[in-house]
Structure formats: structure tokens, C-alpha cells
Specification:
This protein is an alpha/beta fold. It has helices at about 15-25, 35-50, 65-75, 90-95, 110, 140-145, 185-190, 205-210, 235-245, 260-265, and strands spanning about 5-10, 30, 50-60, 80-85, 100-105, 120-125, 155, 170-175, 200-205, 225-230, 245-250, 270-275. The strands form two sheets. A six-stranded parallel β-sheet has the order 2-1-3-4-6-5, with helices on both faces. Helix 1 (about 15-25) links the parallel strand 1 and strand 2 (about 30). Helix 2 packs parallel to helix 3. It starts with a strand and ends with a strand.
């Protein structure tokens, strides 16, 4: 009788019934940094070992990042099971071309029975995960109010909680909620229009790590200025940015002021400003 040998899961779903049940059943559980990587971990393991691998992710907009990996699983005929938690999306249309079955279950224990179904498959579990990933900094917003000019472009990622303020410059709150992808690329894309003096992106460190390859893009230019709100990975972020010849500045949240930010906006260098948040 076949059984699921591995579970790949993302940090958001770690407290879920699925992950806890699989750990209880002594299934090998591996944490992945993001949804896209999680599914490719699964296809890699499955291709190497021929084992059935399950992937558990939050069923929000971010789960769309799993689709490319599931496409690979389908065409390579790999036994991968995608498990999404919650009812945010209608998957019956979005995944139907790359899975051999779409199933709804009410209990995590039921999932273990699907090892004998035709795979790859998608299982939807109605368990909702409470994800508190938003960050805010009134101090940073006040400094930005003072520092930006009408010549600038200011982008706030979906994870940055903004207060209702009227900035002098063009201000965008972009991206999909609960999705970490594409924040740096969004700012880079805007900069290619060359309509503004500075293109400033405010992102969390998780969003930076998901999209940091943008820094090495051939179109990266001196108009880019990223403010990264960091609580853990400031050294990794700084070291990576320096290897790509970015100016890197680290500053504690309490020490940020509009005057110093304004001076940095005028330095004419592509810059990573790491705000150390308590």
C-alpha cells in the first residue's frame, strides 16, 4: 500500500492541523522558505526517490506560485499532492489542467488516504490560517513625508501597513495581500519609465528575500532606492546587496529622520536602506 513519505510546508502553515498530523505520523517534514520553492522541493524529491510528496501551503493569492511546479509534476508524471488551506480561491478552474484530481476534505487525517489516488492531485482543506505578517512604522512614514518630493515615486508593499497620509509624490500601495512575490520588480519596472527622480520601494525583509534577484537585473539603475524593514536578516541582505555594488545603509528605526533620508535620496546611487525594527 502506497503512503506519503514527505511533506514540504511553508512557515505560514506550520501551526496547521495538517503539519501537526504529518509530524505525529512520523512523515518527513521539511520547511520551505516560499510556496514556489516548496513545490520544486517536492518535484525534486519525487524525481530522485520515486516517493509520494505532499506540499502544504496557505490557500491565498500566494498559492498561485505553486502552479508552475505543479505543471512540472503533471508533465513529468510525478506523484505530488498540493494541499491548500482555506477557501480564498476557486481552484477548480485554475489547476484543472495540471492535476488528475481535485478534492475537498474536512480533516487532515483524510489526506493520508490519497496516496493511492491518481497523482498529481490537489486537496483543499477548509482550515483557515491566521497570518499576522503586516508591519508598520509611523516613524518611517513621518520621515518619508519630510524626505520625498513631487519628483519621486514611492511604493509600499502589501505587507507594509500605511496610515492615511498625503505624500507629495506619486504613491502606490501595490501587490497582492499575503503574497511576497514581485515587490522589488514592481519598483524596478516603474523606474524603467524614467518619469521620476527616485523610485523608492518600502518592503519587508521576507519580500526582499523572495525577489532579491531583481537587484542583479540588467535594467537595475541608480534611480532605485529600497527601504527594507528588517528584524532578522539584515546581515544577509546587506552582504548580498554589496556584492552587486549597492550602497548599503543600516539604521535603527528610532534614529530615522526625514533630513537624513532626503540626503540619501539625493546621493545618485542605487541604495539599500535597512531599517532595523525592534
Amino acid at each position: 500500500m502506497k503512503k506519503i513519505e514527505y511533506l514540504i510546508y511553508t512557515k505560514e502553515v506550520e501551526p496547521s492541523m495538517v503539519v501537526q498530523q504529518f509530524k505525529k505520523d512520523n512523515i518527513k517534514c521539511i520547511l520551505a522558505l516560499d510556496v514556489r520553492s516548496a513545490v520544486y522541493y517536492a518535484t525534486g524529491i519525487s524525481a530522485q526517490c520515486g516517493e509520494i510528496v505532499a506540499v502544504c501551503v496557505d490557500g491565498s493569492n500566494a498559492s498561485r506560485s505553486a502552479f508552475s511546479g505543479m505543471t512540472e509534476a503533471f508533465y513529468r508524471q510525478l506523484p505530488v499532492i498540493l494541499i491548500t488551506l482555506g477557501n480564498s480561491l476557486d481552484y477548480t478552474m485554475e489547476l484543472k489542467d495540471v492535476v488528475l484530481g481535485h478534492y475537498l476534505v474536512k480533516d487532515a487525517k483524510e489526506i493520508l488516504n490519497f496516496a493511492n489516488y491518481k497523482l498529481p492531485a490537489h486537496i483543499e482543506l477548509g482550515e483557515e490560517i491566521i497570518i499576522d505578517t503586516e508591519v508598520e512604522s509611523l516613524k518611517l512614514q513621518e520621515a518619508l513625508m519630510e524626505a520625498v518630493s513631487e519628483k519621486d515615486y514611492l511604493y509600499f508593499s502589501p505587507r507594509f501597513q500605511t496610515k492615511e497620509k498625503d505624500f507629495m509624490c506619486k504613491c502606490i500601495s501595490g501587490g497582492m495581500s499575503r503574497c511576497k512575490d514581485g515587490t522589488l520588480s514592481n519598483v524596478l519596472g516603474a523606474s524603467l519609465a524614467q518619469k521620476r527622480r527616485r523610485y523608492i520601494g518600502v518592503v519587508t525583509e521576507e519580500e526582499f528575500l523572495h525577489d532579491m534577484n531583481t537587484l542583479g537585473n540588467i535594467h537595475a539603475n541608480k534611480d532605485l532606492f529600497f527601504i527594507v524593514i528588517s528584524q532578522k536578516f539584515e546581515k544577509m541582505i546587506g552582504d548580498y546587496a554589496r556584492t552587486l555594488n549597492y550602497e548599503v545603509i543600516c539604521e535603527a528605526e528610532d534614529n530615522i529622520c526625514g533630513t537624513s533620508l532626503k540626503r540619501l535620496f539625493e546621493n545618485g546611487k542605487q541604495t539599500i536602506f535597512i531599517m532595523l525594527k525592534k
